[in-house]
Design brief:
11 strands, three-stranded antiparallel beta sheet, 49% helix
Length: 336
Amino acid sequence: MNDRSVELLEQYEVEVHGTRKGRGAILCDTDRGTLILKEYTGNAGRIALQNLLLQEIARRGQVRAETIIPTREGELLTQDMDGTKYLLKTWSDGRECNIYDKGECAEAVRLLARLHGCMELPADTPGLPERFSQEREYEKHNRELKRVKKYLQQRGQKTWFEICLLNDFDFFLEQALTVTEEWQAYSSSCQNLDQEAGGFRDFCHGDYQYHNILRGREGWFLVNFEKCLPDNPIRDVYLLMRKFLEKGNWSVALGRELLETYGKERPIGAYSWIDLYYRLSYPEKFWKIANFYYNSGKAWIPGRNQEKLEKLVAQEKDKQSFLDVVFRDVTRRAHG
C-alpha cells in the first residue's frame, strides 16, 4: 500500500485527522473514529454479501463487529490509478485475543456463539452463493496430498525435511482418506437438521481466529469478515478450537470447557457435533504443511516447516486421545 492510496479517502464523507500504517493497511484517525483502509481482492458479489451480513450483525446488536463505510456515491469499493481495489471499514485499536489465557479463549468462543446467532439470512435472499461442500474440499485436499507424495517419491536427493515428510506421509494420507470416506457415508445417509431451519441459511465468519478478535478499551471487536461463506457454523468452532488446542497440547479439559461455553449460548445439534468430530479428525495441518512445501521454492526450505512438522507428529497421540475422550462413540452414532 502506497501514499497514493491515502488520496482515496477523499471519496468518503469523513474528515481525516491523520493516518498510520498497520498490518498491510492504513489506519485512519477520523471524525468517525478509527477506520482502516485496506486492499480488497475479492469480487463484487462477495463484498455485497459481506456487507449484508455485517449490517445484520449490527442490527441485532449482540456483538461489536466491523462495518463497511461506503463512498459518497454509495460504492463499497474504490480503486486507485493502477486498478487496485480498496475498502474502508470501522476499526478498534486493541490487542489480539490472548491464546494462552483460558478466560479469553472462553470469551472468544462465547462471542462466536453470539455472532452465529446473527449470521443468518433468509434462504430465498437473491444472489446467495451455493453452500460450501466439505466433501468436495476433502476430495480436493486428498488429490493434492497424493500429488505431493508422488513428487517426493520421484525426487532424487532429498533434504532432511523431505525425508521426514515422506516418512509420515502414508499415516496422514490414510487418515485423510478414512475421514473422507466416513464423512461421505454419514452426510449422504442423513438430513442435516441443524441448518436452514425456518427458511434461514447459516453463515460463517470463515477466518475466526485470535488474530481477528480484538480487545480494546470498549471491549471486544470482531474484524476481517472477507472469508464469510454459507456453511455449518461449526466450521468456525472447529478453526478456533484447533488453534487453541494446538497451543494447549490438545487438553481435554480445555476442549470441554470451550464446547460447554459455546453450547450454553448456542446448543450444538447432533449433526453439527459429528461434523465437528470429522473436521478435527481430518489432518488439515499436515495437508497445509505438505501443500505449502509443494507450492514453494525447493532450493531453500524454511526451518519453520520442519518445526511445524515435528510438532504435528509429536502432538498426534494427544490429539487422538482428545478425540477419543471428548467424542466417545461418535463414529458409532454417525453410522448408527
